[in-house]
Design brief:
Elements (H helix, E strand, L loop, with lengths): L2 H27 L11 E5 L2 H6 L4 H10 L5 E5 L2 H4 L9 H12 L3 E6 L20 H19 L5 E6 L17 H14 L4 E5 L15 E6 L2 E4 L3 E4 L6 H10 L7 E7 L15 H4 L5 H12 L5 E5 L1 H10 L4 H10 L4
Parallel strand pairs: 1-2, 1-10, 2-3, 3-4, 4-5, 5-6, 6-9, 9-10
Antiparallel strand pairs: 7-8
Helix pairs in contact: 6-7, 11-12
Length: 342
Amino acid sequence: MSHRRKIVLTIVLVPISFAVAIAIFLAILFLPALNQKQPIEFGATFSKPFAEWLGFDYEKVFLAVLDDLQVKKLRLIAYWDEIEAQEGIYDFSSLDWQLDEAEKRGAQVILTIGQKVPRWPECYLPDWVKNLNNKTIREKNLQMISEIVRRYKDKSNIEAWQVENEPLFSFGECPKGLITRDSLKEEINLVHSLDFRPVIITASGELASWQNVAHLGDDFGTTIYRVTWNPFIGYIYYDYIFAPAFYRIKGFLNKLSSEKIIISELQAEAWSENNLPLTSIPMSEQKKSMDAERLKNNLDFASRTGFGEAYLWGVEYWYWLKEMKGDNSLWEVGKGIWRGGQ
């Protein structure tokens, strides 16, 4: 065989072989035996700033989540810019109230702490640190973490600490290089030195390999988003790309047992197209990425991952739809989850 013919065959066969390998891999991922429904507990993330941004008294929204939806597992967030708006002067009143109200109702809490936490812009740095260098900001952050853990380590309804949110994933308005793997380890070690409860570290389910963070904490949290939006191709529907087993296999490849993995964010609200404010997007457009049927499908998807817990992302959005748009469809699905219907 001539050298030229070998080159031509290589050019033709390599992509064909690659395509066949991908097809086989996807076929395996979607095998029913790997994606069977299993018991799962659902909780919810609650963000005070997001509830307020939507135009509500956050206490009213939070009590509706606790009393009307009857959520019993919560992921709450310590926002640094709110707790320490002025250096060395701490205001824990809002977080105290949330934890107390959850405790009254027997709701368990994962408390998220650090400089990068859930909800855009991700890094909630107080104004007084923004002109400091990264090293100094990290030192101040460690002081903040210490204050939070010392304050709440005797709270019986806190079951775990989440240190940072998707810390090594480049997303959000954060100083470049602010969080490194070494600085993250320092934060985790600090929390371990102050309290016995497990530390959760999180990463993107679809856009990260997990390799850098998989074993830094005691437990691991993955996000699961089924619909996103890209400025070049529009909406991306992952229904036919990622099977539930994808996340469990990803954990296996990173030597993580399914018992050590939770779904820290399960998409339950519309995706914001082109970074527009969610409230300014027409309802017909919002329903392309989230409606009651898609929410039910996401719940079913989560129950097939093999993970024991999933925290829904968007209960504040459900409340906004109900109160401002007269659409209680997502809220009613939520009632079914926590009041016996799901």
